[in-house]
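Friendly challenge for the regulars: who can give me the structure tokens for this chain first? No prize, just bragging rights.
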Amino acid sequence: MPGKMAGILFVMIISGVGVRVCVSQGTSDVFSSTVHLKDLVIGEQKMLQAFDQYLQKEELKLKYLKELFTKLQEDTAEVVNDPVSYIGHPLNAFNTIKRFHIVWTGLLNTIGTNLLYQEFHQTIVASGTPWTSELDYQGAIRAILRIQKVYNITVDSLVAGDIQQYKGMALDHTDCFEIGKVAISIGENKIAVEWLQRIIDDYPTESGHLNFTLSQVYLTIAQAYAAMSDLTNAIRHIETVALVLEPLNHEMKNLLWQYRKANESLTLQPVPQLPSEDPLRVSYEALCRGDPSHDETYLYPGYCHLRKTAIPYCPAKEEILRLDPYISIFHDVLTDTLANQLLQTASPQLFRATIGDPSIAVESDIRISKVAWLWDNDQHNIFIKTISERVAEITGLSTTYRDVLSDAEPFQVVNYGMGGQYEPHHDFYETRASLKNAPLHLQDTGDRIATFMFYLNDVKAGGATVFPNINIRVPPVKNGAAFWYNFKPSGQHEMDTQHAGCPVLLGEKWVANKWIREFGQMFRRKCKLSENSLETD
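First reply, four minutes later:
Bragging rights claimed.
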């Protein structure tokens, strides 16, 4: 029997339960007195009660962990079959990020620091699984807000997990609250009210599991209305808190008084006019949605023909979308094999895309993607040079790469993340001075005279390339490529080539950009007779 008890004690120790023996000061001589023996027996009963309480807590903890395990299994059941399709739904992607940032992090903190935990933690580290941060969580929420606004998706649809009849994971009340707060922080106050009102409309009678109160929801809505200078509605929501939900809260009554005072002052002044939406932004979002009233390519379909190339027996299927500026899309210019080689070679090299002058480039929500550069002189991947040569054959422009005075840049392969986009921008440099900050191989090569952009995969929804100034929309067609000149034949900037990569709504998006420089094109793109000549003249 003593051996059996010692075995139990050993299991408790290696499991991390631990045993601490408390010895009172003075002698440990117990056996020689029945008084002390009696204290020992009574003390043992107290210890058994404490042990029982400990076991009950451990059983509750284990029950919680088992329930959490089952819930995680249910939430990730679809991942096993097709991880790419799973995270291609933005609400699945958001919930995955949330699970890591909140659930898994909380789980590791709950388990403790015993030896079994250390083994569990080491297994996770050894798996090489990347972890998420608050930056990822906030970025995922902004992505939901972005696709909601651009594609006019209702809050009810997003909460239900429905996007264009594709079902993803649903959102809960806590998600709505967090999304509403982030919407206010980025100035999307009207959208914030929609998310927060959804909580009020469906507030549960049993709200003990929520980490916020109904009063906080009303106060946050009031904050959103106040940011829109709508103090009448702000006061209405604060009144609900101060007079109904928390009538004894003097701070709420004081806040209500402050808002009423501010509203009285505001009524004596002219009502401020809310700024009207930027026409460029309106056109950009309408084109992303494929709104026929804005899409010139919908009203006037492109002209399709076989374009002669440098190889007479290998013409290119070209669809001309506009002549001034010259914009077209080439179909079937890549094979599936080459497209897959590009994205597979780029995948291990991806890093976060930036915007701005190369010397001061920064990360921004204006551009949500990661990029990798693939070089024509890569001796281990000669297919890269082959694709560059194909661009030259089709366009008639030089794509020859050199370590100095290169005629073109290496391929920039781009993978767009959750709600990935690139807001309206030009491919040419804004100033000639910024060209001085280009890499050595591009020094003294001029600007980006033309863009040739391959689409490497099919995008389930969203992700079009749009030109909002001229209402042109180019769909991301796998193995196709968009082509346009960034400069007029006269050598001036072609301002109407301002374009954008629309947010990816469903699926994933890969492109490969080949930017062709001015240097080396003097005998290939010759000057026209007139300053106002078109590319086809």
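Residues 6-21 have pLDDT under 50 and may be disordered. The two ends are 102 Å apart (CA to CA). Your move, everyone else.
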